[in-house]
Specification:
481 residues, mainly alpha, 1% strand
Length: 481
């Protein structure tokens, strides 16, 4: 049977068309939910599919999906034919994948340690703080109590960042293993902050209500019957495909295990897609850096030759993580809101692109960074919270990239992440062309420069000592020598 949702004025609409409905609230509902002047709206969770899930129901869009599958098969055949012609045999050892995901036991042990401390330290500590402060009558003692636990929280966040990073560097993890560990580290830190930041106001409100003797201010909402939510809610949030904490989320009725397996199968397919892209278009071009001189002509040709493969890497990464991976976990957890991204491919500006490319991270930045800075610096100034969001996002992205590839290359991040974000008020069609053009150029440059730096650090001797060796790309001195 087809599932339905309630649309405008109670009209039942097929569930698969939910993402096309847009705003389904009536005028009266909007009036009732009208926000006070200057207040920012809250994130709302509703049951809806991911956009591509609905779009793939359309034959014309499904054909594009089939084209990408055909390209994967063609790359596979191309590799086999080249092996037969050059080596006289088929050599599909997939050594690059095995190397990139090497030392997985270290990643697994470190992840289990991170998850263990997230579950058995964060929640019990918050539970103890929120309940114990109810018995403290003196205001000054309660203030000292709060500041002590705030210091403990800051120390924990610092340890949660430093210890996994130290393990990654100590074991010299290869790129895929390193990026997996660092992204999980960032995810758990963001979830920890989301839980603490969301429930501190609840604990303070509960304390104020306990202190009040006015029966009219008694707590009536079940969510406020305790200063700390149940552990089951915290545990669900730790695995749910969202970074914004709620006590309750909209849930689907059942788990479609075939859909889960299909999404995980797509993840595996994308990994092979990335393997063929790097083996065919990246490794042969850059692996001789340091052994053979690279002229400026060869460098320019290499950069432009990486633009299309780099864009394919970008699209594969998006589809693998933000669609297939998150949809698989959402289905297993019956998590109803699958809007992990929006139609970023239609964006006419980078400001829109960053809001729609990764809705999961954007919601966290909006809820726990933008809104707090907005309230802190005054409600009339939106430039400061916007810049703070860009700064934090840039630092975290550069942190992951730098410690994955063991090099520091922030120029492209600043150029494409900040400068173009303020290019607005252009014709939508021209803006979309400009966005795609700069994405092609930017991904080509990223793929080229990081590949050159990676092989330069393998094949070339260091030119500096200490911090300068990390800060200055070795490929600069390697290519000039």
């Amino acid at each position: 049977m087809e599932e339905y949702i309630v649309g405008i004025e109670g009209v039942r609409v097929p569930q698969k068309y939910r993402s096309f409905l847009g705003d389904t609230q009536t005028g009266e509902e909007k009036k009732r939910k009208k926000l006070p002047c200057g207040s920012l709206p809250e994130k709302e969770f509703v049951v809806r599919n991911s956009l591509l899930t609905d779009l793939f129901e359309i034959n014309h869009i499904q054909t594009i999906y089939h084209i990408f599958i055909a390209i994967l098969i063609l790359l596979f055949m191309n590799t086999m034919v080249e092996d037969i012609v050059d080596k006289g045999r088929i050599d599909l050892e997939f050594t690059l994948i095995l190397w990139a995901f090497g030392n997985l036991q270290t990643v697994l042990i470190t992840w289990l340690g991170m998850m263990f401390f997230t579950l058995v330290v964060v929640y019990p500590a918050f539970h103890y703080w929120s309940h114990k402060r109810l018995a403290i009558v003196d205001d000054s003692r309660r203030l000292v109590w709060d500041y002590f636990w705030f210091a403990c929280y800051v120390f924990y966040i610092g340890a949660a960042i430093w210890i996994p990073l130290k393990e990654s560097l100590a074991h010299n993890l290869p790129p895929a293993s390193a990026v997996t560990l660092l992204m999980e580290q960032v995810r758990l830190v963001m979830k920890t902050h989301a839980f603490v930041r969301s429930n501190i106001p609840v604990a303070l409100f509960y304390f104020n209500q306990r202190q009040s003797r006015d029966e009219r201010t008694s707590v009536k909402d079940d969510a406020n019957q305790a200063p700390c939510p149940d552990f089951s809610k915290y545990l669900y949030f730790m695995f749910a495909p969202t970074l914004v904490y709620r006590d309750r989320y909209p849930r689907t009725r059942s788990i479609r295990w075939k859909w889960v397996c299909f999404n995980f199968l797509q993840v595996v397919g994308v990994l092979f897609y990335l393997y063929f892209i790097f083996v065919r278009f990246c490794v042969p071009v850059f692996r001789q850096i340091g052994h053979e001189p690279m002229t400026s002509k060869a460098l320019v040709l290499a950069v432009f030759g990486c633009m299309l493969p780099g864009t394919l890497v970008l699209l594969c990464g998006f589809f693998c993580l933000l669609h297939s991976w998150l949809n698989a976990f959402a289905e297993m957890l019956r998590f109803g809101d699958r809007m992990f991204y929006q139609d970023w491919w239609n964006s006419s500006s980078y400001a829109t692109y960053y809001r729609t490319w990764n809705v999961v991270v954007h919601d966290w930045l909006y809820t726990y960074v933008y809104k707090d800075v907005y309230e802190l610096f005054g409600r009339r100034n939106r430039l400061i919270p916007t810049l703070v969001v860009f700064l934090i996002s840039s630092i975290v992205h550069e942190y992951i990239i730098s410690f994955t590839f063991h090099c520091f290359y922030p120029v492209l991040l600043l150029m494409f992440g900040v400068l173009f974000s303020f290019v607005t008020n252009v014709d939508p069609r021209l803006g979309n062309i400009f966005m795609w053009l700069t994405l092609f150029i930017g991904t080509g440059l990223c793929m080229s420069l990081y590949s050159m730096e990676w092989y330069a650090r393998i094949n070339c001797q260091p030119s500096f000592d200490g911090f300068l060796e990390i800060l200055i790309p070795r490929s600069w001195t390697c290519l000039m020598s």
